[in-house]
TrEMBL record, chain A:
UniProt cross-references to InterPro entries, sorted A to Z: AAA+_ATPase (IPR003593), ABC_AA/LPS_Transport (IPR051120), ABC_transporter-like_ATP-bd (IPR003439), ABC_transptr_urea_ATP-bd_UrtD (IPR017781), BCA_ABC_TP_C (IPR032823), P-loop_NTPase (IPR027417)
Keyword Nucleotide-binding tagged: yes
Molecular function GO labels: ATP binding; ATP hydrolysis activity
Record protein name field: Urea ABC transporter ATP-binding protein UrtD
Encoding gene (name): urtD
Top-level taxonomic group: Bacteria
CDD domains: ABC_Mj1267_LivG_branched
SMART domains, per the entry: AAA
Domain ABC transporter: 32-272
The keyword Nucleotide-binding is assigned to this record: yes
Cellular component terms per the entry's GO annotation: plasma membrane
TrEMBL record, chain B:
NCBIfam families given in the database record: urea_trans_UrtC (TIGR03408)
InterPro entries in UniProt: ABC_transp_permease, ABC_transptr_urea_perm_UrtC, LivM-like
Protein name: Urea ABC transporter permease subunit UrtC
Highest taxon in the source lineage: Bacteria
Species of provenance: Vreelandella zhaodongensis (Halomonas zhaodongensis)
Membrane topology: Multi-pass membrane protein
Keywords: Cell membrane, Membrane, Transmembrane, Transmembrane helix
Membrane-crossing residue ranges in chain numbering: 24-42, 62-95, 139-161, 168-186, 216-233, 265-284, 304-328, 340-364
UniProt keyword Cytoplasm, yes or no: no
Automatic annotation (TrEMBL), chain C:
Localization terms from the record: Cell inner membrane
One Pfam match: BPD_transp_2
Protein name as annotated: Urea ABC transporter permease subunit UrtB
Assigned protein family: Belongs to the binding-protein-dependent transport system permease family. LivHM subfamily.
The organism's taxonomic lineage, starting at the top: Bacteria, Pseudomonadati, Pseudomonadota, Gammaproteobacteria, Oceanospirillales
Entry keyword annotation includes Nucleotidyltransferase: no
Length: 278, 382, 537
């Protein structure tokens, strides 16, 4: 009985005693490496032999029509969904398929969801406090003190995302765009090595979009950023390299112009949505 | 309301003392304890203001229920786990205390056996089952009051939270848990007195349980335990861990993605809550003089949830108010018109959930906001 | 005692032949009442052996009222009045009993029980009387009576009876009586050391046959002992199979009850996501509808039961709609609050029944055609009411499946549960669908109540006993999956019954509960989980 087994396996029960995850090893190139990944739900192949590599410090945009598998791909990287086959490596040392969500998060992979999810009952300040890179085990969390250093760091991020005045308001009263930024702010507090951002500008005004573009491009270099986005204008404004997903695998990869002129890409997008094809 | 920056103290256990709500709560509680004590001891029995031993005992029972309600509010209000099985932890704590009290009877039982409780002699057992060993020692029994429910919560919670059983599913299996335990404790073979449970207690730590002074002492002890339990829970919910709990309650997946091992936080709080419930049970048993399997009944567990809902979820003091209000009403009703009590209880369930989702405490805060329209206080949603 | 009895049987056989002859030539014998009175007087003595003699005397007399006297004596209804008359008590309930004259059969009206003296018998006499009546009955024209008496003779045959028994077997027309008599004779043969008897007994499952074989297996004759042993082993195996079948039957029966109780919940909880803790009370309402219907139609329990099926459905469905409209609709998307509110409703409903009707259990009559059992063989008989309930559960399940799969309502329900906004925009009136679905789920709970009224006590706590089990079944089977509910219900029923013999009823239930608790923690989505994106929500 595997239930008993997991009870008796020492490293499952006592894995809070295990050493903290060692830093990511990127000496051999990419920070994220996905090879031949496939996953299916009830026979439907959401991801089909996907191969993708993200270099350290890169800003990558991923586009593709609905159902291309963008969200599922993020689920796999963050440990929410287990693929049926394939391998996913973070740097050259960490096999993500053997880790769970909190482990992956503390390793330095941050994720922003398509639908902004912040902790609505908590204040903006507290949202950032929780997200901050810290010892996230139980007792350190219980006895955690608020120091000046932490306050400064939170204030710094609050400045970056422009929510200084709203710091003690419950996150629930923020506007849609503000929630998106708060979520990005929470990602920043985690000091991730790799940021996964799902549709960051959905429902934003032009101005807000510009600000978000600035934010994301500012991050690249220090961190690797993967952006999934529908809005082609936005993608064009930030992207250096674009990957097109279609039916769960990579259809094309290259600069925005290269990709836009690829006949197979045009075919996939043709008639799908005028705005997206623009 | 949890303040992060303005706290005058930064040590987690003393943090609640700087909160206004805790200050008020503790003052009211201590004042009530003092008042009852004075009215019982100093006022002569023929004076209408005198509080009799029976009433003191009744208040003591209410206070132990209040502690139980605080324990339930900790998991339901802040962690979003609706436990319909907290009566089980309460009862187990009560049984641990009951076993100690049984062993204290010694040779004074009906059958006069030096070691075996009456019901075991009646069942023709010739020795104590192993799990009864040690309960003649007060320190061991009192430790088990916390350890036994804590251990059950640890095993059950470990399995449940690890497999991410939450929401309604968790509620249903906690209910099944207490139901299964009830059936088990009804069996004579379990060695806990079966149907009749444990009763006929004589003394606790050498004090005669039938004397008025002991009753007063138990009442005060329960009040102190409630105060301490309240402070502990407040300390937990105002800590960063408390905020992780609220985060888990409102967006569990998000909490995982920012790096918290949600299941361990849930487990920790669940175990703390179970131990508090066990403590409440242990204080309850010597005051009512009996513990039997009916405390495991699913209806009792769900009633506790009503106390919390009526008082106001995620406030802790609301749980105390709710527990006292409902049980006071129960005392009145069952005395005056017993048939109507279940109607009233049922109606309370419906009315509170439909019309008063934030309970009495929510009503307080609403009225306060209306009169003093300051900053909008933040409240638990859903 | 045995010799004492066989003496009686010998005499009896001589007599019986004449009795049957007389019965055919009609009752021309002018009953000598004085002689009959003498026979009865002989019974009213202290000494039991003397009473035994008197019984033999009655048998030897060719009085055609002998059987009635003996039966009354056996039942303790043959009594004597203060003035010395012998009477038969017709009904011994209450203070005054209606009696009839033992000699003439004339009713004598009511008599105070204080004026009557019973003619006492002991266990030895009871056995003697039963055997005697059995032999008398072997000549009865009534087949049922002959069957009962033939079964009664198993292990009671002795030397004197053996010879005429062979003749009787040859003349007997009913196969069952014939088989029984053959077995009875075979037991005698085994006892008297004839090997062929063992052969005859090999296929029988009757406990008395086993007793006889056991005795033979421990007897002195090694050949017979070996044969008996061998026969016993094959009987044991046969019994084991039958016991297995019986457990399976009881398991399926319990399972069908679980399915019935849970299937309505599978609709309201599984499909709509509404936690209705008052579901058990809807079952209770169905059961009370049956009771009320039988009160309305006294003397016609069968018709009342059949009418209760639509009535129970309607009553529970209306109650369900009332609950949905008054409470549940205001708590959409707040499952835990719904749970609490509906629990409150369940308390109110229970108390309503308690104060409105009675806190005590009500008696619901089982109609003639549902009582009794289907006898498969000596070791296996299936009670009819359970079989009906099992069939009913399957019919209800099939009906629900049809509704969900094949009707417009089913389609709309599925549409609304998958995407409420989209369904509305396509012109589906979501509120109406909610009401209909809830009515359907509640109505099925009512049907469960109608069925349960035939198996358990109908009281205010009826529903409460089933609510946890029902939730367990739905969760174990996989929420939102009707097939899962069926499989889960039946298998939990069978598991429970399999565990019961060695664990006891309560422990079996605890084991099942713990098993489900652990199972849910291993597979939170049940046996048949919904997969893919929809399940993540």
């Amino acid at each position: 009985m595997s239930l008993l087994q997991s009870l008796t396996t020492r490293d499952r029960v006592f894995d809070f005693m295990a050493p903290q995850a060692s830093p990511v090893d990127v000496r051999h190139g990419p920070i994220l490496y996905m090879e031949d990944v496939s996953v299916s739900f009830d026979g439907f192949k959401a991801i089909n032999n996907l191969n993708l590599t993200i270099d350290d410090g890169e800003l990558r945009c991923i586009i593709g029509p609905n159902g291309a598998g963008k969200t599922t791909m993020m689920d796999i990287i963050t440990g929410k969904t287990r693929p049926n086959e394939g391998s996913v490596w973070f740097g050259s040392r960490h096999n993500l398929l053997q880790m769970n969500e909190p482990d992956i998060a503390s390793l330095g992979i941050g994720r922003k969801f398509q639908k902004p999810t912040v902790f609505e009952a908590l204040s903006v300040f507290e949202n950032l406090e929780l997200a901050m890179a810290a010892d996230k085990r139980i007792f350190p969390t219980l006895t955690a003190r608020m120091t000046g250093e932490i306050k400064d760091r939170i204030d710094e991020v609050l400045g970056t995302i422009g929510l200084i005045e709203l710091r003690f308001q419950p996150a629930g009263i923020l506007s849609h765009g503000q929630k998106q930024w708060l979520e990005i702010g929470m990602l920043l507090m985690q000091r991730p090595r790799l940021l996964l951002v799902d549709e960051p500008v959905a429902g934003m005004t032009e101005q807000e979009m510009e600000r978000t573009a600035e934010l994301l491009t500012g991050l690249a270099g220090k961190q690797s950023v993967v952006v999934v986005e529908h809005d082609m204008g936005f993608v064009r404004s930030i992207a250096r390299k674009v990957t097109v997903l279609h039916q769960g695998s990579v259809l094309a990869e290259g600069s925005m112009d290269q990709v836009a002129s690829d006949p197979s890409v045009v075919e996939v997008y043709l008639g799908a949505d005028d705005e997206e094809a623009a | 309301m949890s303040l992060t920056t303005e706290s005058s103290t930064n040590f987690w256990l003393t943090r609640p003392f700087s909160e206004r709500s805790t200050q008020i709560f503790l003052s009211v509680l201590l004042a009530a304890l003092a008042l009852v004590t004075i009215l019982h001891v100093a006022v002569p029995p023929d004076n209408p203001l005198h509080v009799g031993a029976y009433t003191v005992n009744l208040f003591g029972k209410y206070l132990s229920y209040a502690l139980l309600a605080v324990a339930v509010d900790l998991v339901w209000g802040y962690l979003g786990i609706l436990s319909l099985g907290h009566g089980a932890f309460f009862a187990i704590g009560g049984y641990a205390m009951g076993m100690y009290l049984m062993r204290q009877i010694g040779e004074r039982g009906t059958y006069g056996h030096p070691v075996l409780p009456d019901f075991m002699v009646f069942l023709n057992w010739d020795s104590l089952p192993w799990y009864w060993l040690g309960f003649d020692m007060a320190w061991f029994a009192f430790a088990m009051v916390l350890i036994a429910p804590g251990l059950l919560a640890l095993v059950f919670g470990f399995l449940a939270f690890r497999s991410r059983v939450t929401g309604v599913y968790l509620s249903i299996i906690t209910q099944a848990l207490t139901f299964a335990l009830m059936l088990a404790f009804f069996r004579n073979e379990m060695g806990f007195g079966g149907n009749n449970g444990l009763t006929d207690f004589r003394e606790l730590l050498g004090y005669n349980l039938r004397s008025n002074d002991t009753r007063l002492g138990l009442f005060i002890a329960t009040g102190v335990a409630l105060a301490l339990g309240y402070i502990l829970c407040r300390a937990i919910v105002t800590s960063k861990l408390g905020r992780v709990c609220v985060a888990t309650r409102d967006a569990e997946a998000r909490t995982r993605f920012i790096g918290y091992r949600v299941e361990r936080f849930q487990l920790f709080v669940f175990v703390v809550s179970a131990m508090l419930a066990g403590l409440a049970g242990a204080l309850y048993v010597p005051q009512v003089g009996i513990i039997n399997p009916s405390e495991f009944s699913p209806i009792f567990s769900i009633e506790i949830v009503l106390w919390v809902a009526l008082g106001g979820r995620a406030t802790l003091y609301g749980a105390v108010i709710g527990a006292i209000l409902v049980n006071y009403a129960k005392t009145i009703f069952t005395g005056v018109m017993p048939d109507a009590w279940l109607f009233a209880l049922g109606a309370m369930f419906v009315l509170v959930t439909v019309f008063l989702p934030k309970g009495v405490a929510g009503l307080f805060r609403y009225l306060k906001r209306k009169t003093r329209d300051d900053h909008p206080p933040k409240e638990a949603t859903a | 005692m045995r010799r004492f009895l066989s003496l009686g049987l010998l005499c009896l056989l001589l007599f019986s032949v004449t009795v049957t002859a007389q019965a055919q030539t009609s009752a021309t014998v002018e009953a000598d009442d004085a002689a009959a009175l003498e026979l009865l007087e002989a019974l009213d003595v202290r000494s039991y052996p003397a009473k035994g003699e008197a019984i033999i005397a009655i048998l030897q007399s060719d009085d055609e009222r002998a059987r009635d006297w003996l039966q009354s004596l056996l039942d303790g209804r043959l009594q004597r009045t203060d003035d010395g008359r012998f009477v038969v008590v017709l009904e011994n309930r209450g203070r005054d009993w209606p009696v009839a004259d033992a000699l003439t059969g004339e009713p004598l009206g009511d008599m105070s029980r204080r004026d009557l003296d019973r003619i006492g018998i002991n266990n030895a006499l009871r056995n003697q009387l039963r055997s005697a009546i059995a032999v008398v009955d072997l000549y009865s024209p009534d087949v049922e009576r002959r069957r009962t008496s033939a079964t009664r003779l198993l292990g009671e045959v002795d030397e004197e009876l053996a010879a005429p028994l062979s003749e009787l077997i040859a003349e007997e027309e009913d196969a069952q009586v014939k088989r029984r008599l053959t077995q009875a004779l075979a037991i005698y043969q085994v006892e008297s050391g004839e090997l062929e008897g063992v052969e005859t007994l090999r296929g029988s499952l009757h406990p008395r046959v086993r007793v006889a074989l056991n005795r033979a297996a421990n007897g002195d004759d090694p050949i017979i002992a070996d044969a008996a042993n061998e026969a016993l082993i094959s009987i044991e195996q046969n019994l084991k199979i039958n016991r297995g079948l019986e457990t399976l039957y009881f398991g399926l029966s319990l399972g069908s009850v679980l399915v019935l109780a849970a299937i309505g919940l599978a609709i309201t909880f599984g499909v709509m996501g509404v936690i209705n803790m008052a579901h058990g009370e809807l079952i209770m309402l169905g059961a009370y509808t049956t009771w009320a219907m039988q009160q309305l139609l006294p003397g016609q329990p069968g018709l009342a039961l059949i009418l209760s099926i639509p009535a129970g459905f309607m009553v529970a469905a209306l109650a369900g709609v009332a609950i949905e409209r008054s409470v549940i609709q205001f708590l959409k998307g707040r499952p835990l609050e719904t749970l609490l509110a509906t629990f409150g409703i369940s308390l109110i409903l229970q108390q309503l029944v308690r104060t409105g009707i009675s806190p005590l259990n009500r008696t619901v009559i089982t109609p003639e055609w549902m009582s009794g059992s289907l006898v498969v063989n000596d070791a296996l008989s299936l009670t009819l009411n359970r079989m009906y309930v099992l069939g009913f559960a399957l019919v209800v399940f099939a009906g629900l499946m049809l509704i969900m799969r094949r009707t417009r309502l089913g389609l709309e329900v599925r549409a609304v549960t998958q995407n409420r906004a989209m369904a509305r925009s396509m012109g589906i009136r979501a509120t109406r669908v909610d009401i209909m679905t809830f009515a359907l789920g509640s109505g099925v709970a009512g049907l469960a109540g109608v069925a349960l009224s035939q198996l358990t006590n109908v009281g205010p706590n009826l529903g409460q006993n089933y609510i946890i089990d029902s939730f367990m079944v739905v969760v174990f089977g996989g929420v939102g999956n009707l097939w899962g509910t069926l499989v889960a219900g039946l298998s939990l029923g069978v598991i429970n019954q399999v565990l019961e013999p060695w664990a006891g009823a309560v422990l079996a239930k605890i084991i099942v509960l713990v098993f489900i608790i652990l199972f849910i923690q291993k597979r939170p989505r049940g046996l048949f989980p919904q997969k893919g994106r929809a399940a993540e929500g």
